[in-house]
Description:
The protein is an alpha+beta fold. Helix content is 42%, strand content 16%. The chain has one domain (9-155): Winged helix-like DNA-binding domain superfamily/Winged helix DNA-binding domain (Arc Repressor Mutant, subunit A, Orthogonal Bundle), CATH 1.10.10.10. The protein has helices at residues 9-15, 22-33, 40-50, 55-67, 117-122, 139-155; strands at 38-39, 71-76, 79-84, 95-98, 104-106, 133-136. The strands form two sheets. It has a three-stranded antiparallel β-sheet with strand order 1-3-2. Strands 5-4-6 form a three-stranded mixed β-sheet, with no helix packed on it. Helix 2 packs across helix 3 and helix 3 (40-50) crosses helix 4 (55-67). The longest helix is centred in the last third of the chain and has 17 residues, at 139-155.
Amino acid sequence: MTMCQNCDYHQLLTHAGLEVTAHRLRVLEIVGGNTGPLNAQEIFATVCRATPINRVTVYRILDALVQHGLLERLSGGRAFYYGLAPNEHHQRHPHFFCRRCGRMDCLRPEAIALDLQPLARVFPGHIENVAVRVDGVCKLCMDAVSKRGRAQQAHNPN
C-alpha cells in the first residue's frame, strides 16, 4: 500500500501557496509514493538518482513542505521521518517504529482508534495535531534474531 496514490502534488503545492518546482514535485512524489515515511537521507538519495541536487536544498524543501502542511515530520530514533500530511486522499494514521532497524511503517488508520473528545473537553487550548507512534521490533528483525538463534544452536548443540 503506497502512502497516497490519488494526490495531485502539483495542485497540493499550488493550494499551499508554494511555487511548483521540479524538485518540490519530485520530493512529494517520492514521499507520497513510498509505503512508509522516509528520512531525509533516503529522500535525498532517491532524488539524486534522477537529478543532481544539493543536500541542503532537499532539507529546505522538506522544511517548506512541513511548514505549509503538505508533509508531516515524524520523530523516529536519531532521525526525523517525513510522510504526507493528512488531506482529502490521505487519512491520518498511526506509525510503527522499529527500535532495532530504525524502519518506520504506516499502520492502517483503524489500527488505533483515538477519541479526542474527552481531551478537547479538559484541554483549554486548540489541538492541531496528535501523532501516534508505536515502538517495538518489526517482524523482519524478529525473524533475523530467531534465524541467528537457530544457527547458533546448530553450531553449538550443547
